[in-house]
Design brief:
The structure holds 4 protein chains of 4 kinds. Chain A is mainly α. Chain A is 68% helix and 0% strand. Chain A has 12 helices and no strands. By secondary structure, chain B is α/β, with parallel strands linked by helices. Chain B contains 3 helices and 9 strands. Chain B has one domain: 2-Layer Sandwich (Beta Polymerase, domain 2). Chain C has a domain at 53-152: Alpha-Beta Plaits. Chain C is built from 3 helices and 5 strands, in the order αβαββββα. By secondary structure, chain D is of the alpha+beta class. Chain D has one domain: Cytochrome-c3 Hydrogenase, chain B, CATH 1.10.645. Chain D is 45% helix and 12% strand. In chain D, the strands form 3 sheets. In chain D, strands 1-2-3 form a 3-stranded antiparallel β-sheet. In chain D, β2 and β3 (56-63) form a beta hairpin. The longest helix of chain D is centred in the first third of the chain and has 29 residues, at 117-145. The chains are: A mainly alpha, B alpha/beta, C alpha+beta, D alpha+beta. The B-D interface holds B 25-27, 53-57, 59, 61-62, 71, 73, 77, 80, 84, 103-105, 107-108, 116, 129-133, 140-141 and D 64-65, 68, 70, 72-73, 76, 109-110, 234, 236-239, 250, 252, 257-258, 326-329, 331, 338, 340, 342, 344, 353, 355, 357, 361-362, 365-366, 369, 394-395.
Amino acid sequence: MSPTLESIIITVLLSAIPLVFILLYALVTLYLEMKVAAHMQDRVAYMRTGWHGVLQPFADILKLLQKEDTIPAAADRFLFILAPYIVFVGTYAAFAIIPFTNIYIGSNIHLGVFFLIGVSSLVVIGILMGGWASNNKWSIFGAIRSAAQMVSYEIPTALSVLIAVMITGSLNLQEITQFQEGGIQNWVLFGGPLPLSTKLMLLPFTFITFLILFTASLAEVNRTPFDLPEAESELVQGFNTEYSGMRFAMFYLAEYANMFVVSAVAVTLFLGGWSSPFGDFMSGPVWGAFWLIGKAMVFVFLQIWIRWTLPRLRVDQLMYTSWKVLTPFLFVCLFAVGLILVL
Amino acid sequence: MTPQEIYDNLKAKFGESILEAKLDALQPWIRVDEHRTKEICVFLHDEPNFRFDYLMCLSGMDYNNGALGAVYHLSSMSHKHKIVLRANCPKENPRIQSVSSVWGTADWHEREAFDMFGIVFDGHPDMRRILCPDDYPGYPLRKDFKVPEFYNGMKVPY
Amino acid sequence: MTAVATYFGNIFRSLYTVAVGMRITFKHLFVPAVTLQYPDVKLKMPERARNRLYVNIDDCIGCDQCSLACPVDCISIETIKSTADQDLGVTSTGHKKRLHVPKFDIDIGKCCYCGLCVYPCPTECIVMTDVYEFAEFDRHNLLYKFSRMTEGEIGEAETKLKKAEEEAAAKKAAAAAAAAAQPKPEPPKAP
Amino acid sequence: MSESRVIPTNYVTKPEDLKTSSGRTLRTDEMIINMGPQHPSTHGVLRLEIVVDGEIIVDAIPHIGYLHRCFEKHAEHMTNYQQVIPYVDRMDYVASMNNDLAYALAVERLLKIEVPERVEYIRVIMAELQRIASHLIAVGTFGIDSGAFTPFLYAFRDREFILDLFEMTCGARLLYNYIWVGGVSHDLPPTFIEKAKEFCKYFKPRLVDFNNLLTYNEIFVKRTAKVGVLPRDVAINYACSGPMLRGSGVDWDLRRDDPYSVYHKLHWDVVVGKGEVGAVGDCWDRHIVRMREMEQSVRIIEQALEAIPAGNVQAAIPKRIRPDHGEVYVRTETPRGELGFYVVGDGTASPYRVKARGPAFVNLSVLPEISRGAMLADLVLIVGSIDIVLGEVDR
């Protein structure tokens, strides 16, 4: 075979790994969300399908797949069909730059973080397309709300990522993780491997930035308390009201994948990605994957936990928090970190 | 204020439009002329020593002798006294003056009385049926109401 | 300054109350669940539970009290008077049974389970049991027929009744004729 | 959050208002949405025709009648007054014990019957237990309307205790037909008293948990403060009652101001909204009034359980109810407000006319008044805070 054909096959194979990972991960998170939500509400989720409902995620997926996915008569057919795939592409593309271990990364581009910010706004287009195409008043509401929300939360996400990049000095996520290698004290959250004096000065700002990054990423993923686009009690189901069957499954999968992407990026930037917290005790290619996925799952659990505790914000409060609370704080942190690094 | 005093004041103020009263009943009531109910109610509502600011219940009635009627149960929160007003009207052309401008709650009560008995309240902002569908034949709570056999082509059982 | 105070006050209160809320839900992760796995673990019904109706037809004297008391008229009873020679026996509560009950139907689909029919029954033959799993695939099966009289018995009771009525009618006619024939010759006796 | 948010009055943009840079008029129009009978947060089959300009509501027109079951027509065709009680149960199916109590009191006032002391105490205990159960549903669904799903399940877990108590006494869990004209159908079972005490002890810490999780949560507070503000005089003019009225700061409770049964013998205080968070009479006030009313109800139940005398509960049940000509309007305090029955007797055994004045029907009529200028997400909360049950609205 000609070398180009070979490289194409290799890249296809390499890109298939995250897809397999997403499917496995989605099953686990579906089960996790179901069980955690149930036990937090003093009830027991499914116990019938398999031991303690283990097979329920498969049952859900199968149900969604074999369900008839209707297209509303007055819907804009082409956009309606395209929307879920755009949303999934937006999420799946972000997997390319997450460094799972020191040897494996989708594509080791030097503008990883820049690419991430660009791709995650693709999701907004997909949601807008879905909301507009289903020709339903509620979905229009959901779509417009989610557009406003996503756009206004791009700013805090981008700023907090900028602060992390300022501390580490490179846009390539692999290098960022290598910068943080060598135990917990080198994590960016605790000031990175800089001399102790700068670390101590950096500490409060990196904590605030990490907290803001996590909150803003909650809004990116449309999770409570920012789940206005699909607010059950007001907009029935928001932009995916008219979707059913396979397309709804695609939206669903995209949301779960997005949950992982967001927590994986937060972990890579601030908590040292695949580097183990005990220096080089448990580090190595296989351990690296374990550490990254473990830390990311902790944050996925945190998102689920928040979802079943907090009520929902109103649209104007949503905007208020983004523009008047998160962004000003980040400017202060940006200025302070810049100053400290220069000293 | 005992019902007797209320009756005397009303008789003094409105004279002939206070038609009859039964003050020894379990709950004393006064019957008023149905074309001046609004004035009487405004008087009852604004008069300082009456101050009937709470219309508890307005119910339509079919007296089964060719007369329909509306019964107003009024109470005052400050003075803690109650009175019952009645306004009757003939079955052929049932019209009573609306009091929805005096008490906001009368708006929906009067629409229900219209829906159930067919009593039209003059001066009501939005006189249409509230519970039954708009094209429902007849007024259900009248004593001589026959349940229609078919409604919009649907067979009404029983 | 108050604007800045409220600004930071809001942020602090939001973080604090969110943390309090999350502590509560986390605590509930370790509280045992309250759900019962229904088909395996059944809730014990108290003895006054009002679910399915049951009629002990032997004790029923056909007095129609329960169908009068029912607000939704879901009980329909038909009775045939028994003639003198038939002895229907005595109910467990000592009431003499004088009526055959060929038809005692309760449409449990219409019943509103209010229990008003249980109180007026003199022989307490209608009872609300605590059986609540009586769903049916066909609505017509919800019409419970409690009477156990076969077609033959009903036919026989009817013919007997008709015969007894004819005799009674004949006897009354004869007595009336006889009474009409006698009054003149018999002078009123002295008191 | 922006405290001084002035709700725009003229939010309807007229076509000539908006000019694009090139001078063309940008025509904007309002959208009419049907928050139709089938909607996750209308608490039943209520249709709200909302005229919306963007997210701000220009007008909300409620359409009711989808659950109209002709209660009043049924009541006139019953063969005796006792048979109306199962229908009264089904009117406000969330607080049916209070409905029975209201109807029974009305007919007893008509027949001028005196009820033994023990029955009065049983009725107070049952009514207050039902108030807690009904408030738990109201508060739980209010949490769901604002997006928090967990409080609803905690509320239902606690409500199961009360339903078990009811089932132990009268055999049914939702529609009881327990309070009859002149008494109650069964006397309390022997284990009832200490089981009820056990519930009171169990329930108090649960309320504190519930408040910390939902009521004092800053997001919930921001969602409900200054939303759907019902001023005092509008509340009285629209004859609102119950938590709607007390939420607006009016100190009015029928159990104290128009006393019936043995409430005058028990000590408890009326909870009034004081606008601790936003304005007086907003959604949060109505919510906190319901929460604190539950604590008062527990206090009442404990006192009533102590003071319950012995006696025959079926003593005053009349064999044949034949009231002479007369009419009576009796009102009682149900969880949603003032439920009044106007019963007219005409000498026969079946009632001539029974008019039920449902509190939810009246409280709902004030909805257009308080939801103008609110946002769509607020309308959901305003409907939730009014706590309507469509069985009672439509009768």
